[in-house]
Specification:
Number of helices: 12
Strand content: 5-15%
Radius of gyration: 24 Å
CATH topology of the largest domain: Butyryl-CoA Dehydrogenase, subunit A, domain 3
Helix content: 40-55%
CATH class of the largest domain: Mainly Alpha
Number of strands: 10
Oligomer: single chain
Distance between the termini: 29 Å
Largest sheet: 8 strands, mixed
Bound molecules: flavin-adenine dinucleotide
CATH superfamily of the largest domain: Butyryl-CoA Dehydrogenase, subunit A, domain 3
Shape: globular
Length: about 450
C-alpha cells in the first residue's frame, strides 16, 4: 500500500511553505523532521512518498521527495484526522534517516513530481462523482416515480420532471466529458500537454456538476435521502468531498484560466486524438516533466466540435455565448489591476470552463453517436448555466461598465421544444425500477 505525503496542517494549498525539513547527514542522505496532515493510508503504507525541503538550501533547489516506511520507529503515527473508517492520517517524522536510495527527486524535479502526481489524482475524482450520481439516480427516480401524492406519481409534477431531467442530462455531460478527457490524458506527450487543461476540468467541473445532480435529486426525494437503508444518504455526503480534494475548486479554476487565451483565440494544429481504450503502457504519465510553462500550452480549435452540431438548436444557442466570450477576452479582458481580483477572475473562469466542457461533450457525442434530443436538452442546461455565470460576473464589485454590458448581453434563453423534452423525459422515467443494489 502507498501513501502520498504532500499536505501539511498549517499550509493547505501553499506547498512552497513546507515545514518537513531535511538535514544532510554527510553520507549522501538526510535526517528528516516534520509532520504531514490529511495523508490517506499513512497509517499502514509500506511506502509513503514525502515532500520536504533541505534546511541548508533556500528556494526551489532545496525541495526533496523521498520514500518513508510507515513501520519505521522514527515514523510516528499521530491520529486519524477524520471521523470515518477511511484512515486520513497525521504523522510525524522525528530525525527519520533518509538514505540516498530513498531520495526520489530533488530540486525543481521534486516540486514537479508533486504537481504531476496531483495531475493524476485529480483525474480519478470525476469517475467517483459519476458512480455516486449514477447509483443515486436509479434510487431517486424509482422512489419519485412510485410515490403517489394526491393520486398521482410525484414525477407528474412539472418541476419534478424538470429537476430530474436536468440531473439526467448533467450526468450524461459528466460522462461524455470525462470519457473524452481520458483520450487526451493517455495520448499526452511533451509536445501535447492539452491534458493540463482537461484534467483540472474533470476535477473541478465534473465533480461540481456531481454536486448539482445530487442537489436536484435530493430536492425531489427529500426525506427519503436521509434513510439509512438507501444509497442516497451516503451519496449526499460523499459527493461534497470530491470538489475539495486534490486542490480546491478555486485553485483549479485559477489554473485553467492560464489556458484561456490560447485555447479560445490561438488554436494550433494537432493530429486527431482517437478514443483510447487500448491496453498501452501510459509511461508519459509517470514522467510528465517540468510543470511550468502553462501559458505556452496550445490547443486544437474548439470551433469544429461545435460546427459539427450547428443544427442542434441549443448547441447553436450556446455557440453564440462561446463566441461572445472570445470577444470578451479580446476586447474587455480584465486589466492589470483586475487580474489580482480573483473573485472577478473566477467568474470568468466559470464561463471559460463551460465552453471547454461543451467542446469535449460534443467531441465525445460525435464519437459515440449520442442521441440528439439528449444533446439538445443538455445544451439547454449549459445555456442557462452560462447566462447565470454572466449575471454573476455582472454583479462583481470590480466589473467595469464595459464588462457589465458584455455580461448582460451574453445572457440567452434556451430553445424550448416540448416534444424533445418529452422524449428525454421518457428516458429518465425508464430508469424507474431498472437497478437496485444487491442488499
Ligand atoms: C479526506 C481527505 C484526504 C486527503 N488525502 C490527502 C493525501 O493522501 N495526501 C495529501 O498530500 N493531501 C491529502 N489531502 C489534503 C487535500 O488535498 C487538501 O485538503 C486540499 O488540497 C485543499 O487544501 P486545504 O483544504 O488545506 O485548503 P487551503 O489550501 O487552506 O485553502 C483555503 C482556501 O483558500 C483558497 N486558495 C488557496 N490557494 C489558492 C490559490 N492559489 N488560488 C485561489 N484560491 C486559493 C482555497 O480555494 C480555499 O477556499 C486530503 C484531504 C482530505 C480531506
Amino acid at each position: 500500500m502507498f501513501a502520498f505525503g504532500l499536505s501539511e496542517k498549517t499550509h493547505g494549498a501553499d506547498i512552497y511553505s513546507t515545514d518537513m525539513l531535511l538535514t544532510p547527514d554527510g553520507d549522501g542522505g538526510f535526517r528528516a523532521t516534520g509532520s504531514k496532515y490529511y495523508i490517506g493510508n499513512g497509517n499502514a503504507a509500506g511506502l509513503v512518498s514525502v515532500f520536504g525541503r533541505r534546511a541548508d538550501i533556500e528556494g526551489p533547489d532545496g525541495y526533496v521527495f523521498f520514500a518513508a516506511d510507515s513501520r519505521h520507529p522514527a515514523y510516528h503515527l499521530v491520529k486519524n484526522v477524520v471521523d470515518s473508517s477511511k484512515y486520513v492520517s497525521e504523522f510525524r517524522l522525528e530525525d527519520y534517516p533518509v538514505g540516498p536510495d530513498d531520495v526520489l527527486h530533488t530540486g525543481r524535479a521534486a516540486f514537479d513530481a508533486a504537481l504531476n502526481t496531483v495531475n493524476v489524482g485529480k483525474f480519478n475524482l470525476c469517475t467517483a462523482s459519476i458512480g455516486i450520481c449514477e447509483h443515486a439516480m436509479y434510487e431517486a427516480v424509482t422512489h419519485a416515480h412510485n410515490r403517489i401524492l394526491y393520486g398521482r406519481p410525484v414525477t407528474a409534477f412539472p418541476h419534478v420532471r424538470r429537476e430530474l431531467a436536468d440531473a439526467y442530462v448533467r450526468l450524461v455531460g459528466m460522462k461524455l466529458f470525462s470519457d473524452r478527457a481520458v483520450d487526451y490524458f493517455r495520448s499526452a506527450s511533451p509536445d501535447d500537454r492539452r491534458y493540463l487543461l482537461f484534467n483540472p476540468m474533470t476535477k473541478m467541473k465534473v465533480t461540481t456538476e456531481g454536486e448539482k445532480v445530487i442537489d436536484l435529486m435530493w430536492d425531489v426525494i427529500a426525506a427519503k435521502g436521509f434513510e439509512k437503508d438507501t444509497y442516497f444518504a451516503q451519496a449526499a455526503v460523499e459527493i461534497r468531498g470530491l470538489p475539495k480534494l486534490e486542490g480546491t475548486v478555486h485553485v483549479n479554476l485559477a489554473l485553467i484560466l492560464k489556458f484561456m487565451r490560447n485555447h479560445l483565440l490561438h488554436p494550433a494544429e494537432f493530429a486527431p486524438v482517437p478514443t483510447r481504450l487500448d491496453a498501452a503502457d501510459d509511461t508519459f504519465l509517470f514522467e510528465q516533466g517540468p510543470a511550468r510553462g502553462l501559458g505556452s500550452v496550445r490547443f486544437h480549435d474548439w470551433r469544429p466540435a461545435y460546427d459539427a452540431y450547428a443544427g442542434v438548436p441549443n448547441v447553436a444557442r450556446f455557440r453564440e455565448q462561446a463566441d461572445a466570450l472570445c470577444e470578451f477576452v479580446a476586447t474587455a479582458a480584465p486589466d492589470e489591476e483586475q487580474s489580482r481580483d480573483l473573485d472577478l477572475l473566477l467568474a470568468v473562469g466559470q464561463l471559460f470552463a463551460l465552453v471547454v466542457h461543451g467542446q469535449l461533450i460534443l467531441e465525445q457525442a460525435r464519437l459515440t453517436d449520442l442521441d440528439e434530443d439528449v444533446l439538445d436538452e443538455l445544451f439547454s442546461v449549459l445555456v442557462r448555466d452560462f447566462s447565470a455565470f454572466a449575471v454573476e460576473l455582472h454583479g462583481k464589485d470590480s466589473a467595469t461598465a464595459d464588462q457589465q454590458r458584455w455580461a448582460l448581453g451574453a445572457v440567452r434563453r434556451p430553445v424550448v421544444d416540448e416534444a424533445r423534452s418529452g422524449r428525454v423525459w421518457e428516458r429518465v422515467e425508464a430508469l424507474s425500477g431498472a437497478y437496485e443494489m444487491a442488499p
